[in-house]
């Protein structure tokens, strides 16, 4: 039992050490995952900023391409008009002023439209720039808040780890004291148990000796009683055998005596070839003749003697 308790104690220490290692491994994995998550968030923010910058550059390039295409279109239109004017100059001298005015108005209209488009583009650009700045400010505020949260989280985590370490050291110290106390109590209980076992073993040995002595005496007594009973049964059996032998001898003597007296009786000679049965009916002998019985049955009142075909058959005496 002591080795089993030591083994259980060792298994408990191994289990606690395994739990501590598992908790440390889980904390390290959690810190590594948080670090990887922060790096991934920073990478995503950088990718998002780079994508926004590329998008703004692409939009600016598209606007420049659109303006260049518009200018080229206007230039082509102007050249086409000049060519037409040159072709139809002779035929349209009367309308030259009007066309010039129309061209001037159209040019002014184009300039106005160009100015409006430029103003619109500038407004859109200013709006996008303002949105970008607002988005950048929000991102800066969010990053600052996240950095502050990470700092607070790391500080709380460090405080929690210090507190857990102190609690672990305190639990280990308390556990060591408890183990020492348990070991002392175990040694004391083991000593008391050993003393009880010795005392119990002595009592059992004493009881075993007394029981063996009692069983030996009972066995001797039963053997003595069995011998006496066997001797008594033997004597009774001998007495019964002697009495049966005596009765058998008496019966044989009586049978021979009766057979001789009946065989030589005068009244039995005429019926030698028949079976004769004499019965006592209260008034005297009553003779009955039965075939195939050479010897009669003779009754004297107090005893009945019966013969069969042979003289050696059993004689019944009542």
From TrEMBL:
Composition bias, Basic and acidic residues: 1-16, 56-65, 74-84, 103-140, 147-159, 189-237
Ranges of Low complexity composition bias in the record: 17-37, 90-102, 160-188
Sequence segments annotated as region (Disordered): 1-237
Protein name: Putative adenylate cyclase terminal-differentiation specific
């Amino acid at each position: 039992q002591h080795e089993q308790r030591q083994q259980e104690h060792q298994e408990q220490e191994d289990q606690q050490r395994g739990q501590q290692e598992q908790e440390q491994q889980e904390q390290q994995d959690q810190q590594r995952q948080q670090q990887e998550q922060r790096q991934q968030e920073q990478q995503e923010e950088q990718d998002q900023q780079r994508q926004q910058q590329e998008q703004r550059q692409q939009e600016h390039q598209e606007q420049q391409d659109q303006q260049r295409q518009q200018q080229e279109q206007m230039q082509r239109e102007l050249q086409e008009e000049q060519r037409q004017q040159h072709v139809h100059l002779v035929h349209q001298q009367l309308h030259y002023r009007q066309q010039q005015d129309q061209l001037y108005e159209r040019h002014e209209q184009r300039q106005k439209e160009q100015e409006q488009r430029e103003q619109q583009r500038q407004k859109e650009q200013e709006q996008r720039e303002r949105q970008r700045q607002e988005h950048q400010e929000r991102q800066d505020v969010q990053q600052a808040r996240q950095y502050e949260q990470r700092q607070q989280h790391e500080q709380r985590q460090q405080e929690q780890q210090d507190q857990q370490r102190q609690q672990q050291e305190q639990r280990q110290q308390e556990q060591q004291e408890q183990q020492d106390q348990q070991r002392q109590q175990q040694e004391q209980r083991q000593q008391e148990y050993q003393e009880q076992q010795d005392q119990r073993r002595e009592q059992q040995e004493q009881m075993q000796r007394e029981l063996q002595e009692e069983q030996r005496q009972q066995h001797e007594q039963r053997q003595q009683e069995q011998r006496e009973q066997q001797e008594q049964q033997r004597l009774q059996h001998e007495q019964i055998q002697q009495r049966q032998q005596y009765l058998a001898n008496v019966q044989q003597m009586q049978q021979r005596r009766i057979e001789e007296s009946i065989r030589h009786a005068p009244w039995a000679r005429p019926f030698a070839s028949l079976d004769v049965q004499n019965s006592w009916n209260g008034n005297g002998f009553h003779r009955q003749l039965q075939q195939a019985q050479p010897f009669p049955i003779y009754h004297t009142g107090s005893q009945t003697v019966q013969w069969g075909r042979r003289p050696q058959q059993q004689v019944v005496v009542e």
